[in-house]
Design a protein that fits this description.
Number of helices: 8
CATH superfamily: Alkaline phosphatase D (PhoD)
CATH architecture: 4-Layer Sandwich
Shape: globular
Distance between the termini: 34 Å
Number of strands: 15
Order of helices and strands: HEHEHHEHHEEEEHEHEEEEEEE
Helix content: 10-25%
Strand order of the largest sheet: 4-5-8-9-11-10-12
CATH topology: Purple Acid Phosphatase, chain A, domain 2
Number of domains: 1
Largest sheet: 7 strands, mixed
CATH class: Alpha Beta
Length: 335
């Protein structure tokens, strides 16, 4: 009987390490547009749903208007069922932050944060309610989730203008801010301590804006080279942790991968954006780090992570309307 009990607990421990975690995420959901994805997302039986930003299109600092828009989003067909099925968390981008392409100088950011915290259903005792910014962390089974705030503390990026050859209209892009910062010192220190103290060895960092892609002209970590370098350096301090980035913002889906000096594994950035809308004009966009195709369709992302004895198997999927699989990549990361 004693031997059987020992065997039982050994098997329980083994299969516990082999448990699969299913994470669904997405971004860019205009509350005034139909979103047919929620029942399909629920069918994947996710353990958690991560909002990646632009969770509503508000561009306002008016609390009552924000509440009304978030309520409208919450009443989308199937979303309430999802919130009852699994944990909800996430972060904002610019349109739910309150101003397009906004950063630290937005005057109403405390008002918009209050509305966002309520929508994202943070526990009443969650530290995010007390501190500046919307960054937070949670765990789901054996996975650590870190939501970064790339708006509240972010320095200014300046635009440049040109004539778009496809539309023949005036367009813009963003210059690099060579000395600027994205996260702010308090969030940097929190991020490092959160990774260091995490008992979970696999970490998903929800960034809102893309971390790896650097060839396009839009908002990205690449606009702040000092911050990007600091992020890489921070990750190399914790070789026993494995980090996967997710991002939104772009109204496309793609998977990017980059090898960083000092890391024993490649970094991946899984972008899923466009729950309700995508590009009007389809075009190719350069991304030297892209794996697979550029997806220019409405989409959401699903990540399945399984911890094995000496490695993680990670399945990345982009899903489109009518539950069409648009892109899939399988990744193996060493423990």
């Amino acid at each position: 009987m004693k031997i059987n009990s020992i065997l039982f607990f050994l098997l329980l421990s083994y299969f516990g390490h082999c448990q699969e975690v299913t994470i669904a995420f997405g971004s860019c959901a205009n509350q005034d547009l139909k979103n047919s994805f929620w029942p399909e997302i629920l069918s994947h039986n996710p353990d958690i749903w991560l909002w990646g930003g632009d969770n509503i299109y508000a561009d306002t600092g008016n609390y009552e208007v924000l509440k009304k828009m978030y309520r409208q989003q919450s009443l989308q067909n199937g979303y309430k069922k999802l919130t009852k099925h699994c944990k909800i968390t996430g972060v904002w981008d610019d349109h739910d932050y309150g101003t397009n392409d906004g950063g630290k100088f937005f005057a109403q950011k405390e008002i918009t944060k209050k509305a966002a915290v309520e929508f994202l259903q943070f526990d009443k005792d969650d530290p995010v309610r007390q501190r500046k910014g919307l960054y937070s962390t949670t765990t789901i089974k054996n996975i650590r989730i870190i939501n970064l705030d790339t708006r509240y503390f972010r320095d200014t990026v300046y635009k440049y203008y040109f004539i778009d050859t496809l539309t023949q209209k005036r367009a813009y892009g963003f210059q690099q801010n060579l000395e600027g910062d994205i996260l702010g010192e308090a969030q940097w220190l929190w991020l490092e301590k959160t990774i260091e103290d995490s008992n979970e060895k696999f970490i998903i960092i929800n960034s809102s804006v893309q971390v790896i892609a650097r060839d396009h002209r839009w908002e990205k970590w690449g606009n702040f080279p000092k911050s990007l370098k600091r992020l890489h350096t921070l990750l190399t301090k914790f070789p026993d942790k494995k980090v996967l980035f997710i991002s939104g913002d772009r109204h496309i889906a793609e998977i990017s991968s980059e090898k960083i000096e000092g890391l024993s594994y490649p970094l991946y950035d899984f972008t899923s954006s466009g729950l309700t809308h995508t590009w009007d004009n389809k075009r190719m966009e350069k991304n030297r780090f892209r794996i697979g195709e550029l997806i220019i369709e409405k989409n959401y992302g699903v990540i399945r992570i399984k911890e094995n004895t000496n490695h993680y198997t990670v399945n990345l999927q982009v899903w489109g309307e009518q539950k069409k699989l648009l892109l899939e990549e399988n990744v193996t990361l060493p423990k």
